[in-house]
Structure to design on (631 residues):
């Protein structure tokens, strides 16, 4: 099975889980959103009377409905088995304050006229490798799957009736598991709980716990079993209640917009609320790192993976965080994460794990570095927190010196030390987006220097250094803009090129207008470019492609491309066109309010990477501007 789609995401400070629209748990990360992912397969089913296994995640007689408890990250999946008339409400909750615990509560309702004898069956297959091999051990109330580094425990508040450690795939469909062994060298095991006989019109609940422990902290079996006993003694209903209460308070504290009761406004509210609830699940609270998305392709069968932190995304995501009363998260991203991931020479690499370690990468992107400078100043403009600028000043000085060396090579017609990828990480060379981001970072650094200058009133040498820096940056700004005008505008075809090597129309040239402001939105050459974009990249449904012949996972519109066009139209005052772009995205949200990276034009639904942080950021930026215009 290709586990590409996280239809729903839940989590707390340490655990993050991705689930399908039918409630299947397809991935579970601990202790960060990007490492470690434990699950290869996790199946839950029931055996009713003398039936075989009825999979909760897939059965011809099952009818599904899924929804979050209002204003929370607690997920409910209703499953009605029409054959046995058995209703099941599965509630998935990552308790606040229990950072390494996931609660899966099952309420079973007998809607039949006869008694139903129900057994709950759990099959867990963990990811394994020769250097961290998974083994399994049965305990009275569950199963411990363990490696050298971690324990993955599955248990309930009642004892199991039977289990199977080896060869479970051969017998699981029968719904009968019998094994004499209590311990084995296997990553694929199953357990059965005898729920009991449920009388007609009656219901019963059973909690299932997943508890992850780091063996570097607790490695003795007795320690694990003691913790399991303590967890079982707690009231799981109270833990779920407290978690709901926490998320509702969190949502209220970060909501700045009042929505009307119309159906359209409530569609906006659904995305808005889900964005607020998504961002803490993408972030690392200890380091400030922000992942692009919950992972969707661990095997790299279709992409280079997503659960990493790109400094470049800060331009958009941290701007959105600031609009959602998440200034502390923005500040931590720059003051902690960026400071600790900056290279000695002043640059930032392509991407990192959210804990700050260097992540797998395939190249170099100059805009990762320029984006940090631009993002720091953008945050200052919203908060006017001068101390924030002072704290980051040395980091920014190192970064801008690196950028100056890069630009000097470009302006002289020489190849820079490292050839940069473009925004989409697909083409190496000199791109308009990258140069525009550098242009904006130089402008930002000039203003930062002017603000910082009075702080060195008693240090003439430092003052002279800063004044000199301001002058050199101003000189480079003029030369850089002239270079862009002379080299990136195609006079014959009347549009701004994305790079110096090809003629493909690319939505990323909008970066020169929004947010980097190299050109004004109403300039004739910009309008000519917009005309070409609309002729080439706008699809029949109103969504926009990234660039011509974009075959990455299929020729499909991108949410960020479409919302980028909305931002441009707002700049020129064309609110009608802006709303058309915006409405396209609103209509393509998933049932929970998540936005995807791409959209299936025929089905008008998410087609790839559900819950992309950048897509949600663009939504917040456009929504905020449109709401401001309504005032």
């Amino acid at each position: 099975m290709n586990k590409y789609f996280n239809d729903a995401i839940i989590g707390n400070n340490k655990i993050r889980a991705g689930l399908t629209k039918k409630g299947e748990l397809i991935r579970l990360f601990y202790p960060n959103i990007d490492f470690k992912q434990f699950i290869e397969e996790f199946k839950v089913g029931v055996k009713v009377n003398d039936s075989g296994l009825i999979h909760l995640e897939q059965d011809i007689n099952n009818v599904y409905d899924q929804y979050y408890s209002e204003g929370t990250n607690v997920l409910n999946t209703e499953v009605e088995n029409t054959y046995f008339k058995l209703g099941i409400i599965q509630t998935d909750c990552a308790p606040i304050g229990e950072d390494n615990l996931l609660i899966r509560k099952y309420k079973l309702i007998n809607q039949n006229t006869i008694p139903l004898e129900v057994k709950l069956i759990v099959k867990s297959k963990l990811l394994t490798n020769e250097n961290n091999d998974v083994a399994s051990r049965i305990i009275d109330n569950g199963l411990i799957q363990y490696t050298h580094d971690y324990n993955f425990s599955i248990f309930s508040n009642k004892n199991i009736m039977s289990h199977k450690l080896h060869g479970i795939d051969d017998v699981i469909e029968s719904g009968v598991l019998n094994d004499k062994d209590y311990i084995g060298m296997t990553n694929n095991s199953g357990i059965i709980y005898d729920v009991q006989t449920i009388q007609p019109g009656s219901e019963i609940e059973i909690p299932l716990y997943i508890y992850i422990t780091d063996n570097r902290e607790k490695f003795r079996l007795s320690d694990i079993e003691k913790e399991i006993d303590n967890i079982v003694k707690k009231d799981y209903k109270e833990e779920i209640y407290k978690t709901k209460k926490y998320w509702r308070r969190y949502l209220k504290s970060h909501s700045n917009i009042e929505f009307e009761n119309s159906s359209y406004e409530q569609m906006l509210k659904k995305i808005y609320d889900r964005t607020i609830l998504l961002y803490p699940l993408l972030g690392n609270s200890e380091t400030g790192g922000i992942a692009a998305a919950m992972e969707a392709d661990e095997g790299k069968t279709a992409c280079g993976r997503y659960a990493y932190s790109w400094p470049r995304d800060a331009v958009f995501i941290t701007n959105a965080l600031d609009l959602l009363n998440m200034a502390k998260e923005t500040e931590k991203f720059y003051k902690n994460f960026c400071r600790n991931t900056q290279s000695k020479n002043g640059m930032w690499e392509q991407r990192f794990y959210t804990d700050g370690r260097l992540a797998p990468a395939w190249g170099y992107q100059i805009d990762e570095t320029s984006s940090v400078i631009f993002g720091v100043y953008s945050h200052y403009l919203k908060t006017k927190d001068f101390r924030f600028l002072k704290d980051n000043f040395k980091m920014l000085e190192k970064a801008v010196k690196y950028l100056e060396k890069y630009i000097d090579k470009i302006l002289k017609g020489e190849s820079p030390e490292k050839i940069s990828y473009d925004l989409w990480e697909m083409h190496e060379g000199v791109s308009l987006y990258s140069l525009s981001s550098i242009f904006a970072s130089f402008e930002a650094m000039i203003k930062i220097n002017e603000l910082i200058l009075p702080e060195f009133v008693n240090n003439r040498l430092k003052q002279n250094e800063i004044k000199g820096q301001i002058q050199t940056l101003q000189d480079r700004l003029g030369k850089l803009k002239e270079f862009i005008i002379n080299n990136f505008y195609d006079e014959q075809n009347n549009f701004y090129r994305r790079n110096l090597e090809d003629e493909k129309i690319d939505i990323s040239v909008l970066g020169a207008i929004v947010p980097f402001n190299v050109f004004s939105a109403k300039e004739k050459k910009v309008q000519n470019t917009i005309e070409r974009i609309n002729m080439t990249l706008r699809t029949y449904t109103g969504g926009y492609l990234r660039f011509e012949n974009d075959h990455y996972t299929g020729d499909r519109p991108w949410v960020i491309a479409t919302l980028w066009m909305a931002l441009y139209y707002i700049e020129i005052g064309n609110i009608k066109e802006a709303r058309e772009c915006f409405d396209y995205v609103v209509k393509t949200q998933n049932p929970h309010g998540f936005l995807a990276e791409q959209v299936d034009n025929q089905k008008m639904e998410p087609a790839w990477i559900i819950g992309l942080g950048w897509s949600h950021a663009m939504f917040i930026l456009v929504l905020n501007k449109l709401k401001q215009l309504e005032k």
